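User: Could you go from structure to sequence for me? I need the amino acid at each position, not a summary. Structure tokens:
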């Protein structure tokens, strides 16, 4: 059973169901350029409509300062209707008379999208009066937007105090995957943490070190740890003021019998550009003019052999500068190994965070891992061990 209240526990026929979706998608010249978030929320919308609910969608769009036509959700509605292959009505307000009238006209199975909740300051302030005005439009509340659940806003948290509240299908899938990966994992549990900066991932590293058996560190942040071990990193990206903290993290891991794996070899170049002349060096032999841009073949093998021993993998951040060839090789090869182990039923793999999603898409494996979260900030806060307001309120009592 899910740790959260889900749609399996509620009868929605004939009910007004307020669904918090994340329809904050990129739009250029009135056309949606990436419909991933719409694709994700589509199953909940169609299931509710098929069960005879009156489906009312809530979402923010952009960062408007008050009511602003260029931040209207209207262009998104056409794309949503196209994705779910059924009509979607639009109301150009999310509270008050206009919204109430539009909701009153709904028949069971109809779908209505309300205007941008952030047109009102009460949304981000989690103003009780604004939450009440939203709640007045529905009988049941469904959150299907993990990506905004780390914010205690009126449409993600305030409203859930006022109506019976449930997780939508996308949120349910996401939460079940995250709970399985971090709260009740099959062990050994391995985490890969990459990316540029240690400074942005201190809370993450601290929380993961308490939970995982093995922590593999990649990306430019590994350079700061190599410096902490007294190695030279040439002209590579690193954070000088965090070397002492990196030392502490290494000491803490040793004291708690947690294994931290750092690169043993690296691909270096003197220029940061595609197909720059590069070579593989041992991490003890990085030259003064070298920049570490990826992990080397021995580090790749080492990481893959760890994954082969693991039962669960949590992944955030690439191994190298995956945006330019050939420095995407480390990320690509480890990602391919993780995908193969997942497909063979030997590994539960959960990944997320902006760069990670881009890197896994570039490697062509995103669809072959157990779960890839498109929620940047919310996914990171979950990994950091923080309580997410929009999620906590849905927990089974």
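Assistant: Here is the amino acid at each position, in order:
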């Amino acid at each position: 059973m899910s740790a959260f209240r889900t749609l399996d526990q509620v009868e929605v026929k004939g009910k007004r169901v307020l669904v918090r979706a994340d329809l904050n998608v990129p739009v250029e010249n009135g056309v949606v350029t990436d419909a991933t978030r719409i694709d994700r929320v589509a199953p909940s919308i169609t299931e509710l409509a098929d069960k005879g609910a009156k489906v009312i969608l809530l979402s923010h769009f952009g960062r408007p300062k008050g009511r602003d036509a260029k931040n209207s959700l209207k262009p998104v509605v056409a794309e949503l209707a196209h994705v779910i292959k059924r009509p979607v009505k639009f109301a150009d307000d999310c509270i008050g008379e206009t919204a109430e009238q539009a909701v009153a006209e709904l028949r069971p199975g109809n779908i209505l999208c309300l205007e941008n909740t952030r047109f009102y300051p009460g949304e981000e302030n989690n103003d009780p009066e604004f939450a009440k005005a939203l709640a007045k439009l529905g009988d049941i509340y469904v959150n299907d937007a993990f990506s905004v659940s780390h914010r205690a806003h009126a449409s993600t948290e305030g409203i859930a105090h006022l109506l019976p509240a449930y997780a939508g299908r996308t949120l349910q899938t996401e939460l079940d995957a995250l709970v399985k990966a971090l709260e009740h994992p099959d062990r050994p549990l391995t985490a890969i943490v990459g990316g540029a900066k240690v400074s942005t991932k201190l809370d993450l590293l601290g929380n993961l070190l308490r939970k995982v058996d093995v922590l593999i560190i990649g990306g430019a942040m590994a350079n700061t740890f190599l410096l902490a071990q007294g190695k030279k990193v040439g002209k590579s990206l690193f954070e000088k003021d965090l070397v002492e903290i990196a030392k502490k993290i290494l000491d803490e891991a040793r004291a708690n019998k947690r294994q931290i794996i750092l690169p043993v070899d690296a691909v270096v170049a003197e220029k940061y550009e595609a197909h720059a002349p590069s070579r593989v060096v041992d991490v003890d032999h990085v030259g003064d003019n070298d920049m570490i841009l990826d992990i080397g073949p021995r580090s790749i093998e080492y990481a893959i052999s760890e994954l082969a021993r693991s039962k669960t993998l949590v992944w955030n951040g690439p191994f190298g500068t995956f945006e330019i060839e050939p420095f995407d090789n480390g990320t690509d090869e480890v990602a391919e190994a993780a995908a193969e182990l997942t497909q063979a039923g030997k590994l539960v793999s959960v990944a997320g965070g902006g760069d990670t999603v881009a890197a896994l898409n570039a490697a062509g494996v995103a669809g072959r891992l157990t779960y890839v979260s498109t929620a940047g900030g919310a996914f990171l806060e979950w990994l950091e061990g923080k309580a997410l307001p929009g999620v906590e309120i849905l927990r089974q009592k």
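One structural detail worth keeping in mind: The radius of gyration is 23 Å.
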